[in-house]
């Protein structure tokens, strides 16, 4: 059984006694910075000069500094820039300005696990990774709840790294929901696998194929959209509430029987073998290497795949249909339809 932590395991005064620099003010950065500030922590935000997100941080009442200046002031440096930018950012602006004994906090283990960042021995290296998008991490905190976190210590230089990690996790509201003890290796490999095989890669491809099969067979795209995309949320909500069993209990007997007989025909044992191959590429570092090499080259493959994804007919159908859905209100005001770039 995994080791779990709740608020009673944490001493919030530890993080309240530190000067914290949050580097990056995007999805996770804004949530960590604002939640910590509202938990009574001394927070500054570090961003590059002229950063568009700096304006948002300032409007929220936070102090915004250059990365170098924020790091120079800090006992705790939280690295929440995109994974692909962290290596250069750490080498050029964080490491040269890092105080002796300052702790490093990550929201995902990618750069430590794959060796793109190698901090010196004197620093605590922690991870507090919320298991949800940053905008939810902020919204739940404001509503008095939290998004669960997983917590890890890679390097315990001070001997008190776990106390700091739990205090930090409480500060962002994560321990209201609960924390699970993990390692950088486990978090990184399972996070990449989950998003690639099931949550993002698997679900997106499943929905697209379902839409293609129905529309190619002559059914109306609007009806196909409802059946394979819109209703997915209702099914997933039931799974989250009560597992696959609750989903099967709630749907009709027809749907449940179809689940048993057709699910394994669509997602055949061969798919499981493909998943294992995806996991092997994550574990070997081959996926990380491909991602970072493409990013270093200006992300040509990434941009091409993103542009191609946006042209799928399901996106056009969905854009038109969602205009008619008064009950769908996007929670994330930063997102504009059709402008994922
Ligand atoms: P974002 O893409 O939202 O981060 C964007 C922010 O980083 C902006 O403030 C941007 O500033 C800043 N930034 C980008 N490049 C640099 C740079 N070179 N120097 C300084 N600042 C920079 O990141 P996420 O929040 O998605 O991810 C952050 C970390 O959290 C990652 O490790 C990720 O894996 C992890 N994570 C993310 C989750 C999520 O919900 N998205 C969930 C769990 C973990 P500017 O305005 O100048 O562009
Ligand atoms: Mg991830
Ligand atoms: Mg139906």
From TrEMBL:
GO BP terms: isoleucine biosynthetic process; L-valine biosynthetic process
UniProt-annotated binding residues for Mg(2+) 2: 191, 227, 231
Cofactor note: Binds 2 magnesium ions per subunit.
Residues annotated for NADP(+) binding in this entry: 25-28, 48, 51, 53, 134
Annotated substrate binding sites: 252
Residues covered by the KARI N-terminal Rossmann domain: 2-182
PROSITE patterns in the record: KARI_C (PS51851), KARI_N (PS51850)
GO MF entry, a single one: NADP binding
KARI C-terminal knotted domain residues: 183-328
Keywords of the record: Amino-acid biosynthesis, Branched-chain amino acid biosynthesis, Isomerase, Magnesium, Metal-binding, NADP, Oxidoreductase
Gene Ontology cellular-component annotations: cytosol
Enzyme Commission code(s) on record: 1.1.1.86
Pathway stated in the Swiss-Prot or TrEMBL entry: Amino-acid biosynthesis; L-valine biosynthesis; L-valine from pyruvate: step 2/4; Amino-acid biosynthesis; L-isoleucine biosynthesis; L-isoleucine from 2-oxobutanoate: step 2/4
Pfam assignment, any one: KARI_N
InterPro entries, alphabetized: 6-PGluconate_DH-like_C_sf, KARI, KARI_C, KARI_N, KARI_prok, NAD(P)-bd_dom_sf
Active site location: 108
Keyword Magnesium: yes
Highest taxon in the source lineage: Bacteria
Summary of the function given for this chain in its UniProt record: Involved in the biosynthesis of branched-chain amino acids (BCAA). Catalyzes an alkyl-migration followed by a ketol-acid reduction of (S)-2-acetolactate (S2AL) to yield (R)-2,3-dihydroxy-isovalerate. In the isomerase reaction, S2AL is rearranged via a Mg-dependent methyl migration to produce 3-hydroxy-3-methyl-2-ketobutyrate (HMKB). In the reductase reaction, this 2-ketoacid undergoes a metal-dependent reduction by NADPH to yield (R)-2,3-dihydroxy-isovalerate.
Family: Belongs to the ketol-acid reductoisomerase family.
Protein name, UniProt field: Ketol-acid reductoisomerase (NADP(+))
Source organism (scientific name): Isoptericola dokdonensis DS-3
